[in-house]
Amino acid sequence: MIEIALAGNPNTGKTSLFNILTNSYEYVGNWSGVTVEKKVGMLNNKKGHLIDLPGIYSLNPLSKDEGVATRFLIEENFSMVLNIVDASQLERNLYLTIQLLEYGKPVVIGLNMVDVAKGRGIMVNEKKLSEKLQSPVLPIVARTGSGCKELAGLLTNEKQENKPLYISYGQYLDQAMESLVAKMPEAENLPPKRWLALQFFEGNEVVHSLLKTLMPVEELQRIFAETEKLVQMEEGAKSLSYHIRAVRAEYIKGVLDVSLQKGDEVAYTLTDRIDNIVTNKFLGIPIFILFMYLIFKLTFDWIGSPISDLLDGFLTGPLSDGLTSMLQAAGASAFIKAVILDGIVAGVGGVLVFVPQIMILFFLISFIEDSGYMARIAMVMDKTLESIGLNGKAFIPMIIGFGCNVPGIMAARTIEQPKERLLTIILTPLMSCSARLSVYSLFVGAFFTQNQALVVLSLYLLGIVIALTLAKIFSSTILKEEGSMFVIELPPYRIPQWRTLMRNTWEKGKGFIKKAGTFIFGGSVIIWFLSYSGPAGMGVDMNKSFLALIGGAIAPLFEPIGFGSWQAGAALITGFLAKEVVVSTMNIIYVAPDLHTLQGVMAHHFTSLSAYSFMAFLLLYVPCLATVAVIKKETGSAKWTWFSIIYALLIAYIVSLIIYQGGKLLGF
Amino acid sequence: MVLTDIKAGGKAKIINTEHVNVLVRRRLLDLGIMEGTEISIKRILPFGGPFAVEADGQWVGIRRSEAKLIQVCHS
């Protein structure tokens, strides 16, 4: 079995290629930094593994996800690199290629986006390029899959041995590298020493920490300082890294001189025209808000709700009736019947009803990601976010967080500045995820039938406004800025491919269905059991059940914010597992066979005002279990994890208090 | 002359990026924008917002405060 590393610049189509070559479904988007962790897939011919690394411009890492790739090269065993390069941006793509070739493992180059390059009048002669780089080069279009079969064949038949590319960096640096190489001790599994020396002189932090484990720090510092001084004096370079870059650029120029032909520059007319509108002086932000509004309209009023209603009709009609008669025929006991019908069907079914709405939301988020609009949103929002101590890139995790907070928090890795990243991680859970959507759908269906989309939109906006306010507070107190930065690649627009959209939607949505089958299934049974049993035994009146006792214990706390019933307390406790469990719990405790009955029953327990206060509390109160776990993993700090739970609880209580008491004063 | 002196749609050649934040300069380098690069200003966002610039077909968004530190000349 051979191990092949897939490396390339961000947004060059690595993940698309990965999906084709391994026939797996990874997440694809049209913005830099989709792949934040390495992923492994089995090649279609079962002869090797392909490891999809995060996109990098250079092996010298700047942000955390870039470090993943460099660390992989240093620490892991692999036999070959598949380097995907963007034919329309060859000059800067080759910068990484050179460093991979210097590393010395065999490199196969997939020349992607030849169609885009042609559109811009760039012709690449792959034969000449291959000759120059001493490695196979194959033109492909990863989006459509053209050329990928040939590439796959090449991978497993390629030679396993290769000599590192040797570029002379001038006599002074060459000599310094030689003497550093001579000083390095022998160690097992060490990357090629000249490559290590070169990366060290370029200022690669990951390589620097590796060398520190092998050699005294003082000696490394001395060698670096002496060499830099020498190169500055003799070569007239600003710094070592500048010098190295200049030598590489010269080399690349030599390669491109013979392998690249530029025709007349054709501008990105489509991209230009779209950008004229969506990043327009006055229209930029309104257009973004309009887009969000359309998304909600589609999800609720136009497509999502009608389908959800149909599904609800099926679950509560034919399915429940079928199950009931089956259980009757099988002679099931009353207990079994109650578990299945009142526990599982009510709990799991109550959540499944919202799958259509959630899928539509995921579909629309995928569309935005794949079209290239995401990077524009980040740019349009940068000024606003800068004023509160974040940068425009923080908006991407937040939008992804609308789907699910977990990938949203992971997407924060592309933010280079550590404090901005931490702040984004802590605030992303305030973005209203699709699981919370199921709870809103339930409540707006009962209390706000006339303005469903508008009320839900207001909750999403509430989450955003609170996140932005807290960002300002946190960044000017506990997380003082060290200087914020913002540079973003703006990819050309493209029309998302139907296949990719469906894949992404399914990838994101299936987790929700899986949860319904596991977490919510189990949770429903437990909740039902707690509602069925009590101190007095089994089959008790629900008001005397264990669930009522537990919910009742915390209920007085919620009295001032409008919902002091044991039912609300119990639902909120179970909501920590996953927010949609709140819906399951309510279905079970209000013994509602279908959505409309439940909404009818709820009208007796909530007013419109307390319903809104409940939704706001649910939006803010604690990140769900999975989100807490990912916060812990991404921040690596128990302190910040606890912080994100506790501040959320406090804020939720304060906001709901203001809504409920303020609303009462205003006479609602 | 600095980058912010150029109007939207205009072109210029970069002569110095020394004063730009180190991280920003590194990222611009990664994207192929450095001394000697010819860039055109594609869009300028309002209220002191970012600049979208293009160099060799590559579009990049940078902050105005950073653009102010990039010295350019007419190309």
From TrEMBL, chain A:
Q: Where does the record say this protein resides?
A: Cell membrane
Q: Which residues cross the membrane?
A: 282-303, 348-368, 388-410, 422-448, 454-475, 512-533, 545-563, 612-631, 640-660
The chain positions of domain FeoB-type G read 1-161
One of this protein's Pfam families, by short name? FeoB_C
Top-level taxon in the UniProt lineage: Bacteria
Q: How does it sit in the membrane?
A: Multi-pass membrane protein
> Which Gene3D superfamilies does the record match to this protein?
1.10.287.1770, P-loop containing nucleotide triphosphate hydrolases (3.40.50.300)
Q: Which UniProt keywords apply?
A: Cell membrane, GTP-binding, Ion transport, Iron, Iron transport, Membrane, Nucleotide-binding, Transmembrane, Transmembrane helix, Transport
Which family does the record claim for this protein?
A: Belongs to the TRAFAC class TrmE-Era-EngA-EngB-Septin-like GTPase superfamily. FeoB GTPase (TC 9.A.8) family.
Q: What does this protein do?
A: Probable transporter of a GTP-driven Fe(2+) uptake system.
Q: What is this protein called?
A: Ferrous iron transport protein B
Automatic annotation (TrEMBL), chain B:
Query: Which UniProt keywords are listed?
Result: Iron
- Specify the signal sequence span: none
The record's section on InterPro entries has: Fe-transptr_FeoA-like (IPR007167), FeoA (IPR052713), FeoA_core_dom (IPR038157), Transcriptional_repressor_C (IPR008988)
Question: SUPFAM superfamilies attached here?
Answer: C-terminal domain of transcriptional repressors
Task: Tell me the Pfam families matching this sequence.
Answer: FeoA
Q: Does the keyword Iron apply?
A: yes
Q: Would I find Flavoprotein among this entry's keywords? A: no
Tell me which residues make up the Ferrous iron transporter FeoA-like domain. Answer: 1-74
Q: What is this protein called?
A: FeoA family protein
